[in-house]
Amino acid sequence: MNEKLIDLFEYTYHFNKEMIKKISENISKVDEKTISLINHTLNAQQIWNARILGEKTFEVWQINSFDTLEEINHQNFLKSIDTIQNRDLDKRIEYRNSRGDRFENSIFEMLFHAVNHSTYHRGQINALFVQNNMKPVLTDYIFYKRR
């Protein structure tokens, strides 16, 4: 199970990196919503990692300096992989969401949500690319596995 989850985070890391690159190469064509969504995508993974590790979280919709996005993505990846390799994925963690409501989920559920959430928002970013006359990045998992 751990190897499969690591594979999903490698996939997430790879395509987050590709999205950052595409935005960087076309910065004059992208809109504020695209910038907001790529930041939110990375912020959310940081938030889930921080909840698991008991660290300070980013704000859900904070806008980070564009030149820090690759490093945020890399740090997110490293922390997620370290968590998978060194924590009991069945352990339940109590946390508060961005509205302050209390919840409890397993580490596995939190990590899997982070992967799924990233996939969802990359799809939204691709739709914005198309609206702005840009080619989307083919981010389907199967394309990642075929390379």
Helix fraction bin: 55-70%
Rg is 15 Å
Structural class determined from secondary elements: mainly alpha
Strand content: 5-15%
Instruction: Name the average pLDDT.
Output: 97
N-to-C order of helices and strands: HHHEEHH
Low-confidence segments, given as residue ranges, are none
CATH architecture: Up-down Bundle
Q: Write the CATH homologous superfamily.
A: dinb family like domain
Give the CA-CA distance, first to last residue. 22 Å
SS elements, strand count:
2
**What does the main sheet amount to?**
2 strands, antiparallel
Tell me the quaternary state: single chain
Q: How do the strands line up in the largest sheet?
A: 1-2
CATH topology: Four Helix Bundle (Hemerythrin (Met), subunit A)
What's the overall geometry? globular
